Amino acid sequence: MNNRTLLQFFHWYSPAEGHVWGEVSKKAEDLARIGITDVWLPPAYKGASGAASVGYDIYDLFDLGEFDQKGSVATKYGHRTAFEHACRSLTDHGIRPIHDVVLNHKMGADEKESVVVRRVNSEDRTQIEEDDVTALAYTRFTFPGRHGKYSEFIWDKQCFSGVDVIEQPDETGVFRLMNEYGEGQWNDEVDDELGNFDYLMGADVEFRNKAVYEELKYWGRWFSEQVPVGGFRLDAAKHIPAWFFKDWVGHMRDTISTDLFVVAEYWHPDMATLANYLELVDKQLMLFDVALHHRFHDASKAGGNFDMRTIFDGSLVSSIPDHAVTLVDNHDTQPLQSLEATVEPWFKPLAYALILLREQGTPCVFYPDLYGAEYSDKGEDGSQQKVEMPAIGCLPKLIEARQRFANGPQIDQFEDTNLIGFTRQGTESEPGCVVVMSNGEAGHLSVDLGSNHSNAVFIDFLAHYEGEIATDGHGRADFATNGGSVSVWVRRDCLSA
Ligand code: CA
Question: What pTM was computed for the model?
Answer without folding.
Answer: 0.96
